[in-house]
Amino acid sequence: MSKRIIAIDGPSASGKSTVSRRVAEELGFCCVDSGALYRGVTWLCLRACPKRLDAKGVLGALARVRPEFFLDARAVRFTLDGLDPWPELRSEAVVEHVSAVAAIPGVREWVVERLRGMTVFGDLVMEGRDIGSVVFPGADFKFYLDADESERARRRLLENAAADLSSVKSSISRRDRIDSTRKAAPLRVAEGACVIDTTGLGVEDVVRIILDKVRAGGFQ
Ligand code: DC
């Protein structure tokens, strides 16, 4: 039987991760943070070829890596060459380079193939930038979460008390610019996606909007 897919896309800090986890929990689906895989590839390259974060160096490292995917409390996690990159995925070095690495077409092909393979784990809520447009254009439901930039910066700041508002804001707008202007699978609203402006909404408000829509569409 084909697996049910809910795609949740949107820019940095639009609330996708928390909302996706909660929607998956309510529906008993597995949850996939596709950005974590781009961050993991960046982490790998910073270890394997720190002086060569160009396409050739990055694709060389990817050709050699052995990824393993597994479920941890219904979230898809992975190791790369047996190592757990999770604690490092939000480090400054990864954050600085991830948008450039994610813009390399060969990286995107590698990641997209693995994301599509994750249906082996079951029905999925997958969040990212191109899930509804490229990874699963036939997803059962597509959502695009947005929020104004100041609100997104404030949310990121709550996750990282050591940062300051203006540097968080400039990091978010730099990543948004790279993510939405790159040639390969730029961030955009997928055809047929329901756009939710989450500015001023709490996590549970957004979860409720999504659940109402998917339940009205037959998901229980
Ligand atoms: O969602 P995030 O902040 O963890 O994403 C990290 C980076 O990966 C971000 O620069 C955008 C990129 N990304 C992407 O290009 N496509 C996806 N499906 C998910 C993330």
Tell me what you see in this structure.
It is a single chain. Helices cover 49% and strands 16% of the residues. The chain has nine helices and seven strands. It has helices at 16-27, 34-48, 55-64, 92-102, 105-117, 131-135, 149-159, 165-181, 203-216; strands at residues 5-9, 30-33, 67-72, 75-80, 124-128, 141-146, 194-197. The longest helix is centred in the C-terminal third of the chain and has 17 residues, at 165-181. It is globular. The two termini are 17 Å apart. The model has no long low-confidence stretch (mean pLDDT 93). It binds 2'-deoxycytidine-5'-monophosphate. Residues 12, 34-35, 38-39, 98-99, 102, 128-131, 175, 179 line the site of 2'-deoxycytidine-5'-monophosphate (DC).
Q: From the 3D structure, determine the CATH topology.
A: Rossmann fold
- The tally of strands reads 7
Largest sheet: spatial strand order: 2-5-1-6-7
Mean pLDDT: 93
Helix percentage range: 40-55%
Regions with little confidence, pLDDT below 50 for 5+ residues:
none
Q: Superfamily at the CATH H level?
A: P-loop containing nucleotide triphosphate hydrolases
- Please identify the top-level CATH class: Alpha Beta
How would you briefly describe this protein structure?
This protein is α/β, with parallel strands linked by helices and 220 residues long. The chain contains nine helices and seven strands.
Task: Supply database-style keywords.
220 residues, alpha/beta, Rossmann fold, 5-stranded parallel β-sheet, two-stranded antiparallel sheet, 9 helices, 16% strand, binds 2'-deoxycytidine-5'-monophosphate
